[in-house]
């Protein structure tokens, strides 16, 4: 087991896990439910982490992650709220301004 990536957005970490799995690299996400304990530990340590199961695949995994980050998935792009027109960061599943869900377009 080796940690290859960490990001504040669980959406991003899960996306990269899918990228690795699609390339035959077994990976899993840790810290995906620790957001409620902020304050006890440094914030960054609470970020969701991406781990590869096989250490020898870590280098390949890091390469795949770099490639994936250079070509962002359109599904992870910022989106525009259909209810209020606000630009919402891709990390948010709901509009931070009015609380509406993204509309499929
Ligand atoms: Zn809105």
SSE blueprint and pairings:
Elements: E1 2-6, H1 10-22, E2 27-30, E3 49-52, H2 58-70, E4 79-80, E5 87-88
Antiparallel strand pairs: 1-3, 2-3, 4-5
The chain binds zinc ion (ZN).
The total strand number stands at 5
Which range best describes the helical content: under 10%, 10-25%, 25-40%, 40-55%, 55-70% or over 70%? 10-25%
- N-to-C terminal Cα separation, in Å? 39 Å
Order of helical and strand elements: EHEEHEE
Rg, Cα atoms, Å: 15 Å
Major sheet: arrangement of strands = 1-3-2
Identify the bound ligands.
Answer: zinc ion
The mean pLDDT is: 85
Biggest pleated-sheet summary:
3 strands, antiparallel
Please give a structural write-up.
With 105 residues, the chain is α+β, with helices and mostly antiparallel strands. The chain has two domains: 2-71, Alpha-Beta Plaits, CATH 3.30.70; 77-105. It is built from two helices and five strands. A three-stranded antiparallel beta sheet has the order 1-3-2, covered by helices on one side. A hairpin with a 6-residue loop joins strand 4 and strand 5 (87-88). The radius of gyration is 15 Å and the shape is elongated. It starts with a strand and ends in a 17-residue tail after the last strand. The relative contact order is 0.19. The model has no long low-confidence stretch (mean pLDDT 85). Bound molecules: zinc ion. Zinc ion binds next to loops.
């Amino acid at each position: 087991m080796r940690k290859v990536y960490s990001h504040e957005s669980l959406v991003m970490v899960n996306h990269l896990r899918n990228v690795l799995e699609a390339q035959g690299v077994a990976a899993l996400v840790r810290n995906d439910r620790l957001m409620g304990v902020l304050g006890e530990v440094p914030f960054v340590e609470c970020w969701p982490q991406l781990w590869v199961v096989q250490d020898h695949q870590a280098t390949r995994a890091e390469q795949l992650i770099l490639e994936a980050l250079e070509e962002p998935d359109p599904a992870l792009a910022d989106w525009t709220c259909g209810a209020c027109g606000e630009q919402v960061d891709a990390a948010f599943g709901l509009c931070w301004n009015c609380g509406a869900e993204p509309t499929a377009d």
